[in-house]
Amino acid sequence: MAEDPQKRDEEYLYRSSGIRERQGQIPLWIKLVVALLFVWSVYYLVQFWSAG
Amino acid sequence: MAQDELINRPLIKTWLWTALIWLTVVPLVGLLLSIKFHNPEFLGNHAAWTFGRLRPVHVNGVIFGSFSTTFLGLVYYYVPRLCGIRMYKEEWGWGLVWLWNAFIFFGSISFMLGYNSGLEAAEYKWPLNIVRFVVLGLVGVQVVGTIIQRKERRFYVALWYTTAALVWTLMNLISGGVILPYAEQVEGVNSAALHGLYIHDLVGLWLTPAGLALIYYFLPTSVKNPLYSHQLSLLGFWTLAFFYPIVGIHHYMYSPIPHLNQVIAVVFSMLMIIPVWAVMVNWFGTVSGRWGEVLGGVDSDSYAAKFLLLGAVYYLLGCFQGSMEALFRLQQLTHFNDFVIGHSHLTVFGAMVNWAIAGLYYVWPRVTGRKLWSTRLASWHLWLTIAGFSVMILGLTAQGFIQGSMLEYGVNFVDTIKEMQPWWVMRSLAGATMDIGLLLLLIECYKTARDGEPLQQDGSATSASDEDAALQSVPAQGWLENPPTIALVAGVGFFTFAVLIQAIIPFLSPGTRVTTVEDVVTSHIVQVANYTPIELRGRHVYIREGCWYCHSQFIRPVTGETQRWGPVSQTGEYAYDHPHLFSTRRIGPDLTRVGRKYGDDWHTAHHWQPREVEPDSIMPAFPWLFEPVKGDARPQLNEDGKALLAYIQRLGTSIGDWREGFVSTRVATGLALNPSPETRSELLALGKAVYERRCIGCHGAKGDGNGPAAAWLNPRPRDFTRGIFKFRSTTGKDSLPTDADLFLTVTHGLWGTAMPSWQEISERERVAVIQYLKTFSERWQKEEIGQAIILTAEPSVTAESIENGKTIFHGKAICFMCHGVAGLGDGTMAAALQDVWGQPVRPSNFTLPAGLHGGVKLGHDSEHLFRTIMTGVGGTAMPPFQGKLTDEEMWDVVHYVQSLRVDAHVLELLTAGLPSTEEHESRERIWDSLSKTAGQVETDKRLNDTAVTRATEINAR
Questions:
Q1: Does one domain contain both B610 and B711?
Q2: CA of B373 to nearest chain A CA: how many angstroms apart?
Q3: Rounded mean pLDDT of B60-81?
Q4: If you measure CA to CA, which chain B residue comes closest to A33?
Q5: CATH number at residue B591
Q6: Of B162, B227, B758, B764, which residue is the least packed, with the fewest Cβ within 10 Å?
Q7: Are residues B175 and B314 in the same domain?
Q8: Please, is B138 exposed, middle or buried when counting C-beta atoms within 10 Å of its C-beta (0-12, 13-18, 19+)?
Q9: Residue B278 is nearest to which of A10, A30, A40, comparing CB atoms?
Q10: Mean predicted confidence (pLDDT) in B771-791
Q11: In 3D, which of B242, B98, B80, B251 has the Cα closest to residue B159?
């Protein structure tokens, strides 16, 4: 995951289509969402599995 | 190579012309279907134009016609451009485009002719499945061949999704087109589990990745900005690839599919938030800094971008809705109703189809060489889509909550359908608005191709500047974004993993393949019988007519469904269901336990013209299930019709005689129901309204039992004008019943006749309609209601009591003259009996289970039988025995009559595989379900005496 600002702004050009693509990054808030959902998943799995 | 030399413009144009036809026609079919919801007679009673036959035309038409044809056409545009070479084996495209369109056209015709596999979104029969597989397989070869030979160093994200979509879908089509319809081992619950995966993979692993490929290509090209983040592309793709294949079972929550698999489906549905939010950030980041140009632009690229962004918003909403509705609690409220239809439209049309349309706006001028003919037309298309679709989605979502809440609250099912009517009208108007927009798109494309101004084509990409050349210096991609990793790990690997977890492991679990159920009366395990040939034929008719699009077949243990329809579904009940018919929608009520709920006569009338029986019904009529008739003769069911009834009457009966003790109809009204004259007067208006909505079809406007459906019914509906009623607690022959008596009949229904249980309507409505039906006869004004009989305490059920009852039955009371020696309703007098209207009546067969024609009508429970013996059956030859028999003698007869049913029930269980070691305990439990004093019964000896005789009798029937 690119955190280096210079690397983050790197671009690549797809010549035959003209599309440019930034290396970019994954925003911190998305990472938090990912972490929270994984924690919730474990909780839900355990909670409802045992409820069945 | 100049960009335009990479593509075959005539080929793409041909694909997109045909796509435009499907984009216009198929949504119109949706509009026709929508109109049928509020005008069920719309398009007449022709088999090919019924809801059940047109629905797959619309659903498959949108998936494979409107969206996929556009997508495949666009593949021939963007894949060569992203690879820097012409499409591999490009000439195949000419054959494929016509083959694909032939598949959709003949597939649609086949649905209208009744060819249907019975699996939602996998309805096509095998010849069409082969054509579809061949076309997608060969397109896959072309795409992979082009990727392998590509000149572009990097493998762009649109190609990841395209590759994976083709790999996933080819595998998924084997699941839906081969395994599900043809592997007979995959039946019942396992059929549902695999189908859950299939149906959602068609959306999640075909429509979604194909749609994402389109937006990933056309968004940066149309807004002319760099794609925001390659890192987000990676996160979005790999999380989608891992999560999405696993979620499908959320279509069948609270079903007998193993609970753990349902929980896994919920968890992964929620995890889908990750890829959705990742791609959303990526797309909106891509537009950053260009919003003014995009929203204010009036060229074709701007409209492409607008439709892409519109689709992105709908995608975000639809996916969030999808994740949420998978949660157990929300599922209870929203599943089976229009909330789900809103969700599917939001994702499939709102996102995917709009992205495909965006691709059309971008590509059409480039392949025709002409500028967009009218930007005003494009603007109208956009705004009609926004207006119509937003209204439709908001409405469907609200409808889901309203109907779900009503059902959870316990409202009568048909009342919820009535409540939906204005909403459905609004949906039709909204759909028409959208369809007009699509028609404008067709006109736009036609006029552009014919009259549009010449377009200055894109320049050559090979004239890249030094700056561009520098941009190519970024290192090649890692292993996560190589074609083999995408195809093999994300494509084959993750798909196989999901099938293993959610289909193969459950299949290998013995618990999903049982052919036994728990008998609900005795709690013992019994075998489920396979379908008889006529039931199987009926099942085929049920599938052919698309009954399963509107009627589910699993009762959930939530939202009061067990009170509404009967005991919760058991795995073994589906043992011989191939394919399963769980269904995902309830436009009509669940049919899991409909067997024996209504008589055959009611079903016959209902299938001839549903609104004659139930004025608020929106079910189609099925005249082609009847023999042709001349003149005014009443048509008879043909062989298909009879088979369908045989299948329907079998549904839900494998778990034993559950209806006998169904709590919802075993109401105790007591004698407290005695409204004051003022209250009765107040209730009359309501009673009239209830009568006209629910009773008039059979009992007629005048209450004379001559409603439009009456001619079909045997016994005929009650004629209220004479004020004579069968079941009463009042003394004297044909005495007037109490309100409580009528309340009991209305609530319970009369088994084996067309009179259904009205336990689902409110108590106030039931009391009100009783007041109204009393206005049809002057007896209610002229006569006093007699004294209610005194129900003496029931003595213990003993062998002596039963034997004494038998003696009275065959002697003093001469019951056998009508009811027969063995209580089968076949006494010597039986054939000659008539009621006071001159209609033949048949004495009850006491051995039959609840709901069968010819059996008892209000149950085998002690109090009801005692009351009936004491007061007789009004209007029939069954006399009141009050004064002729002592209370003790009447109780003995009650016990004997009950013993006939108990014996028959035990033998039914033995026939169904009940071990003889469990017979005694089963017998006791059956007795307990009928009599409060049965604890002391000595049953063993009696069974030995009668079992052989009874078995012979039952088998003879």
A1: no
A2: 25
A3: 98
A4: B274
A5: 1.10.760.10
A6: B764
A7: yes
A8: middle
A9: A30
A10: 91
A11: B80
B405 and B537 housed in the same domain: no
B819 and B697 inside one domain: no
Determine the average pLDDT of the residues in B323-329: 94
Closest chain A residue by Cα to residue B6: A16
Q: Which of B151, B229, B464 sits opposite A22 (nearest CB)?
A: B229
ipTM of the complex: 0.94
Q: Within this chain, do residues B812 and B869 fall inside the same structural domain, yes or no?
A: yes
- Residue of chain B with shortest Cα separation from A20: B226
Q: What one-letter code names the amino acid at B8? A: N
Q: What is the CATH number of the domain that holds B445?
A: 1.20.210.10
| Residue B568 maps to a domain | yes
Q: Which residue has the tokens 């556009």?
A: B70
Q: Is B270 on the interface with A (CB under 8 A)?
A: yes
Contact across the interface for A16 and B6, Cβ inside 8 Å:
yes
Instruction: Check A12 against B474: CB less than 8 A apart.
Output: yes
pLDDT at B927 over 80: yes
Those of residues 30-49 in A touching chain B at CB distance below 8 A are: 30, 33-34, 37-38, 40-41, 44-45, 48-49
Q: What is the pLDDT of residues B424-435, one digit of tens each?
A: 999 999 999 999
**Structural domain includes residue B471:** no
Residues 150-169 of B with CB under 8 A from A: 151-152, 154, 156-157
Q: Chains A and B: how many Cβ contacts under 8 Å?
A: 134
> Do B500 and B530 lie in a common domain?
no
Indicate the number of domains in chain B.
4
Q: Is residue B681 part of a domain?
A: yes
Nearest chain B residue to A25 by CA distance is B231
Q: Are residues B14 and B141 in the same domain?
A: yes
- Nearest-by-CA chain B residue for A40: B267
How far is B470 from chain A, CA to nearest CA, in Å?
9
CB B97 within 8 A of CB B11: yes
| CB-CB neighbors (< 8 A) of A30 in chain B | 232, 235, 274, 277-278, 281
Instruction: Read off the pTM.
Output: 0.94
Q: List Cα–Cα distances, B877 to B198, B709, B811, B818, in angstroms.
A: 59, 26, 18, 9
Indicate the range of A5-14, B338-347, B516-525, B657-666 predicted with least confidence: B657-666
A48 to chain B, minimum CA–CA distance in Å?
7
Shared domain for B565 and B684, answered yes or no, is: no
- Which has the closest alpha carbon to B235: A36, A43, A33, A14? A33
Say if B515 falls within a structural domain.
Answer: no
Chain A residues whose beta carbon lies within 8 Å of the beta carbon of residue B266: 44, 48
> Do B27 and B314 contact (CB within 8 A), yes or no?
no
Chain B: give the shortest CA distance to residue A7, in Å: 10
Closest CA to B725 of B702, B699, B707: B699
Q: Which residues of B touch A33 (CB under 8 A)?
A: 273-274, 277
B183: pLDDT strictly greater than 50 = yes
Touching A: B residues 38-97, CB under 8 Å: 78, 80-84
CA dihedral A27, A30, A31, A34 (to 10 degrees): -160
**Nearest to residue B330, comparing CAs of B559, B557, B566, B570?**
B559
**The token pair that represents B499 in the structure block:** 């099938």
Tokens of residue B472, six digits: 């190519």
What does each C-alpha distance from B591 to B243, B251, B621, B659, B827 come to in angstroms? 33, 18, 18, 14, 35
Q: Which residue range forms the structural domain that includes residue B247?
A: 7-452+480-507
Q: Residue B473: which pLDDT band, with cuts at 50, 70 and 90?
A: low
Residue to test with chain A: of B263, B286, B308, B466, most A Cβ within 10 A: B263
Closest alpha carbon to B487 in B225, B144, B163: B163
Q: How many Å apart are CA B569 and CA B667, to the nearest integer?
A: 23
Residue B816 has pLDDT above 60, yes or no: yes
